[in-house]
Amino acid sequence: MVFLIVSFLFTVLSAGDDSEFTIVENSDSQRDTFGRCDICKLLVKSARSSGSTDKDKVKAHLEENVCSKLGIVKKLCSDTATTLIANAWNRLLTDEDPQAVCRSIRLC
């Protein structure tokens, strides 16, 4: 259920993005990992669009503009944002592919 909600919200929040995603459902752990990957990529894109290079401002932007809109997966989003900022901050400031950024911290 959470997987479907995340997939739907990711689609809605990334409207206009030319990215194409394939939804694969296998085990619960794969669905969770896939959900985290989608959330992570969405957070990378949103962090870059915030226009800030201050960690606290970017974290606040992500909480307000992404995580707060994800309902029952808000905590997962918030935890993912914290992990992303703590472990991939320098990569967030580049134009590196969002999936590569998330893969580097094992969220994809």
UniProtKB/TrEMBL annotation:
InterPro entries: Saposin-like, SaposinB_dom
Stretches assigned to the Saposin B-type domain: 33-108
Keyword list, A-Z: Disulfide bond, Signal
UniProt-listed PROSITE patterns: SAP_B (PS50015)
Leader sequence segment: 1-15
Protein name per the record: Saposin B-type domain-containing protein
Natural source organism: Blattamonas nauphoetae
